[in-house]
Amino acid sequence: MKKQVLTLLFLGLTLIVKSQNSTEQVQKSSVEKSIFGIQTGFAGLWVYNELKLSNQIALRTEIGFDAYDNDEFYPDAGFLLTTFITAEPRWYYNLNKRQSKSKRIDNNSGNFFSLKTSFRSDNLLLDFGDANNARIVDNLAIIPTWGIRRNIGNHFNYETGLGLGYIHYFAKSSGFVKDKGEAAINLHLRIGYQF
């Protein structure tokens, strides 16, 4: 009888033993479904949205105002404030590692690799002042970038990134002899607010 009671007790205990991996730990870390915010830096102001494509990949779309040195094609224009549009797939590659170390991953806080693709157009140029003839040559930049994004509190964040890529100037469409392409650098440091 003792053996039967001990056997039943042992079997009963094995049914209530829990695994070390709780349901929270089993869930994979993931980027947010959609985040919307505004950021500012040394030379501009940007409004962005990041949309989840997979657990580690988000598509960042952005529209903003950027200081632009226009000395290559129109040297008299000087620095201008240009409007630009960006589409940037981002791979947040260290979310699982950050979560396992109990670090924040909310609001897509992590390290990322991205392919920043930005377009500036003369049609989107904002003209402030008396230089009514200010113009730019339409251009498209594609820059692979490495960066980090971290949260400050619940709504604020900062972000920095560094990349080297290519920019193509569509100079022929502006009346120049030929188009031009050259190396481009993406170096940014931004602070922002997420809604």
Unreliable spans: 19-26
Distance between the termini: 67 Å
Number of domains: 1
Strand content: over 45%
Task: Provide a descriptive summary of the structure in words.
With 195 residues, this protein is mostly beta strands. The chain has one domain (37-194). The protein is 13% helix and 53% strand. The protein has 3 helices and 8 strands, in the order ααββββαββββ. An 8-stranded antiparallel barrel has the order 1-2-3-4-5-6-7-8. The longest helix is centred in the N-terminal third of the chain and has 15 residues, at 2-16. The chain is elongated and about 100 Å long. The relative contact order is 0.16. Mean pLDDT is 85; it is low at 19-26.
Nutshell version of this structure?
By secondary structure, the chain is mainly beta.
Task: Show the helix and strand layout.
Blueprint: H1 2-16, H2 23-26, E1 34-41, E2 44-52, E3 57-69, E4 79-92, H3 95-100, E5 110-126, E6 139-152, E7 156-169, E8 180-194
Antiparallel strand pairs: 1-2, 1-8, 2-3, 3-4, 4-5, 5-6, 6-7, 7-8
